[in-house]
Automatic annotation (TrEMBL):
PANTHER family per the UniProt record, alphabetical: DUF676 DOMAIN-CONTAINING PROTEIN (PTHR47842:SF1), EXPRESSED PROTEIN (PTHR47842)
Top-level taxon of origin: Eukaryota
Organism, scientific name: Russula ochroleuca
Protein name (record): DUF676 domain-containing protein
Length: 405
């Protein structure tokens, strides 16, 4: 992904010709990875968004920026502090670099967090809103949108544990069946009997040969080779599926360790409430795109999601946008392959929908800037008018006094 700013050919949304009345916008799209993520989490998605927006938003420099990899352990609040400091410095640097003047709110910020990166974005936004020196002061850095990608704002879907445990158990069971079947073929060459299931990880001792056939002469060696093959099959199968097993158990467990607040329903609900309030009161658009595996054959399971969704009557439900993926095996795979076009057939649609939200945020920001400019001009004009009236009144009073004298 290139971080070189690209300037569009004109200065207004939907306009083909530049106008001097509309100032140039600098849009910084900040990408924040989630748990165990890194600079490669988003793949080419930032560049794709940059391309779409550069082609559809006039008069703006679109610059995607990756928040550097950070340690996803410990207290989330400390990560929020580090991110807030980094974003503040970055904003000043970019405003100066684009000759906007540091701290002028001319650089507009879009926060994009994947998974727990969305929690970091939400808490940082809340911190910026609540630490302003004056409640009437404008928000700075000038955050215009907070987008999340499969962030468990209301917690992890309980079905994740059931589905992941079942998947891991299936692998173990298949490994055991394979091991038992292979060993049965070696230990009983003259019979076609169904092998008796043994506990996973245990192999039966070889029985002595019943007749001096070919097995009698080299049976011991065959048993030794067979045991090695079976042991290799068990270890190999577990190794090749380690990612699925670890994703099913390890990742979810470490998610719980990193952010215990995922299990605090009141805190989760309050975070979503603050995000909705941030949009209704401060104009910061909030959207979260959540992965969903649609219902379909052969199992015809109901739609499956990684995240818990708001109640249908909630004010937040309209801000949760489905991001279907029909290629993912399970909810966890849909979550971790969200930005891989070969594993997510909804990847390109996701880019279009995210770009549409950002365009709306830019348009809203420009409207707010225009209103502020008009209000400022009106205020200045009224002050000048008041000053003129005051001068005329004073002059008139003086003249009247002279006449009375």
């Amino acid at each position: 992904m290139s971080s070189t700013p690209q300037q569009a050919p004109s200065n207004s949304l939907g306009s083909s010709q530049p106008t001097q009345q509309t100032p140039l916008d600098v849009i910084l799209i900040i990408f924040i990875h989630g748990f165990k993520g890194d600079d490669t989490t988003f793949g080419d998605f930032p560049s794709r968004l940059q391309h779409i927006l550069s082609e559809t938003v006039q008069g703006a420099v679109i610059e995607p920026v990756l928040f550097p990899s950070y340690d996803t352990k410990g207290d989330l609040n400390k990560a929020v502090e580090r991110f807030a400091d980094w974003l503040t410095t970055l904003t000043v640097q970019k405003e100066v670099a684009h000759s906007l003047g540091g701290g002028t709110s001319r650089a507009k910020i879009v926060l994009c967090g994947h998974s727990m990166g969305g929690l970091l974005a939400a808490d940082s936004l809340d911190a910026f809103i609540n630490t302003r020196p004056d409640i009437n002061a404008p928000l700075w850095p000038n955050i215009i949108a907070c987008l999340a990608f499969d962030t468990p704002y209301l917690g992890l879907n309980p079905n994740l544990f059931k589905n992941s445990a079942t998947k891991a158990a299936d692998y173990v069971q298949n490994v055991h069946k394979t091991a038992s079947g292979l060993w049965g073929a070696f230990s009983q060459p003259q019979k076609l009997a169904t092998p008796v299931a043994k506990p996973a990880g245990l192999l039966p001792a070889p029985a002595p040969a019943s007749s001096p056939g070919r097995w009698g002469s080299w049976g011991t060696a065959a048993y030794a080779v067979g045991g090695a093959l079976v042991a290799g099959a068990v270890a190999g199968t577990a190794y090749y599926h380690r990612a699925d097993i670890e994703t099913g158990y390890g990742a979810l467990t470490e998610h719980m360790q990193y952010v215990g607040a995922l299990w605090d329903k009141d805190a989760l609900a309050m975070r979503v409430h603050c995000l909705v309030e941030g949009e209704t009161k401060h104009g910061v658009i909030f959207r979260t795109f959540y992965t969903v595996i649609p219902s379909g054959p052969p199992a015809n399971l109901p739609p499956r999601t990684f995240c818990i969704l708001p109640e249908p009557s909630s004010d937040a439900i309209q801000r949760f946008v489905p991001a279907p993926n029909t290629l993912a095996e399970n909810e966890v795979r849909a979550h971790v392959t969200m930005f891989e076009p070969t594993k997510n057939d909804g990847y390109y649609q996701l880019g279009l929908e995210a770009a549409a939200v950002i365009r709306q945020a830019i348009a809203n920001g420009r409207s707010a800037d225009h209103s502020t400019t008009v209000e400022s001009a009106v205020d200045n004009q009224m002050k000048e008018t008041d000053a003129g009236i005051g001068w005329q009144t004073d002059a008139g009073s003086g003249q009247g006094s002279d006449l009375l004298l």
